[in-house]
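Project standup — Tuesday

K.O.: blocked on the structure for the chain from last sprint. Re-posting the sequence here as requested.
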Amino acid sequence: MSAQNEFPKATQIEIVSLEAMEQPVLRQGVAYWRTLRGTRAFPSRDDIRLRDLSSLLKHVVFVKVLDDANDFLLKVVGDEVARCYRAPLINRRMSEIAVDLPYSVTRWSALYRKVALSGEPLAVCVKVGGEKAELNFTHSATVCLPFGVTDDRVDHLVTFGQHFSRIDA
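H.V.: unblocked you, prediction finished:
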């Protein structure tokens, strides 16, 4: 196997601007979030209408922020996202999922915490390394968007993600 086809020893995470995300699913998710947000810092989770997201639901995760952003409950997990991880995710706390997916939970908890505490959306591109045994993909692009009833506290997060499997990238 040539060096260009090997997985990196460590997972590589690149934070990118929302505008740099090329995937239509992510761009649609961000546009929807911005529409809901209007002039507020972020929209409320109650503003979401699932019928508005019908074409994006397989790519979505609805996350409830718990314990001052020290834990997170995955309330809804789209089919594509669920297939990408080698453990059940729906209606589980990250602290529970950590038993099955320690590398992934460490990464996602840090990203979720950053968005929950800052109130700022975050877009990342990931090239899987050390945790490849936990996953059914090699690359992903995800946006994590804050939601809250008031402009000073994030109580939910919504992610839109696309996952890819490729040996040559």
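K.O.: great, moving the ticket to review. The domain at 21-164 is CATH 3.30.450.20 (Beta-Lactamase). The first helix runs from residue 24 to 37.
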